[in-house]
Amino acid sequence: MSASALKPAAGTAARSAPAAAPLVIDIDGLSLAYQAADGPVLALSDIDLEVRAGEFVSFIGPSGCGKTTLMRVVANLVEPSAGTIRVNGMTPEEARLKRAYGYVFQAPALYPWRTVRRNLMLPLEIMGMKRAEREARARKYLALVGLEGFENKFPWQLSGGMQQRVSIARALGFEPQLLLMDEPFGALDEINRDRLNEHLLRLWEKTRVTVVFVTHSIQEAVYLSNRIVVMSPRPGRILEVIDSDLPPDRTLDVRETPEFLAIAHRVRMALRASHSYDD
Ligand code: ADP
Ligand code: MG
Asked: CA quadruple 251, 253, 256, 257: dihedral positive or negative?
């Protein structure tokens, strides 16, 4: 297939962030070794990456290749061994203190004894936000993830997919410029995952928050992203960065189109070349 077949149809806006958009993540020559009892474990090796405002970038690679580690570096939960990283032009520590990012984990991690609304308000309360503002934020972001009417439920009264939407709303409640999502739908069945994929894409179109998303699923990565970063088995290196220009208002049906299948094929080939994927 020719490269032009991957371009959006005339009249649809290209989705890639313009080159002039500000850098949200800037990583240069980054490596990270964990100190384990039996010696160092090299988890990431020589990572170079730029993510610009408004992008949706997915990381895909085999288990143990360092995807979570890379997110943890961005979030300042672990320090790199070499190289540099800037988040919104700051060190990761400064960015963390300024709450520049929201973090969504694979498990929703909600407090079972707090209602949905009070789960959302807790981190805002810790930030010292006034009550009226906390309540307004909780209302706004629950509505944005389609959960109005569920404010006074407890997490255990909701399905897994709804709980994950609560944790997305909670991360958005900070109004971060950057949303880090580490296999957020990995524990869900395919039907719910599909539904949340569509939901997340609509949410991203509305908020234009920059998203960095980790997944094992080629379909999910291609459906959601404007760039897909393919990583090698440990030590994690970037093998290939694949651009995607699917139409912005796409629905799940796009997965049947030749354009989608061509991008998915490129991702699969990149993974296969590193012996990290077999079907
Ligand atoms: P992924 O998210 O891609 O599955 P991780 O980033 O969790 O991979 O882990 C990358 C590698 O680093 C794995 O080999 C893992 O065993 C190792 N690792 C992760 N955390 C630690 C740690 N705290 N100490 C030692 N090794 C670790
Ligand atoms: Mg992981």
From this structure: negative
Distinct helix (H) and strand (E) counts, the chain: 8, 9
Give the residue, by CA position, lying nearest to ligand 1 atom 12.
Answer: 43
Domains in the chain (CATH in brackets) are: 3-100+176-278 (3.40.50.300), 111-175 (no CATH)
Ligand 1 contacts CB of residue 63 (under 6 A): yes
Q: Which DSSP symbol is given to 8?
A: P
pTM above 0.85, yes or no: yes
| 21 Cβ inside 6 Å of ligand 1 | no
Q: In angstroms, rounded to a whole number, what is the distance separating the alpha carbons of residues 28 and 125?
A: 36
Instruction: Return the half-sphere exposure (C-beta side, CA atoms, 13 A cut-off) of residue 110.
Output: 30
Cα–Cα dist 212/109, whole Å:
19
Q: What is the pLDDT of residue 144?
A: 87
Beta-carbon contacts of residue 158 (< 8 Å; ≥ 6 apart): 116, 150, 166
pLDDT tens-digit series, residues 237-273:
999 999 999 998 899 999 999 999 999 999 999 999 8
Rounded-to-integer distance, Cα 61 and Cα 238, Å: 9
pLDDT in tens, 14-61: 445 566 899 999 999 999 999 989 999 999 999 999 999 999 999 999
Task: Report the length, in residues, of the chain.
Answer: 279
Largest CA distance in the chain: 58
Per-residue pLDDT, 16: 52
Please state the rounded mean pLDDT for residues 200-209. 91
| CA 101–ligand 1 middle distance (angstroms) | 22
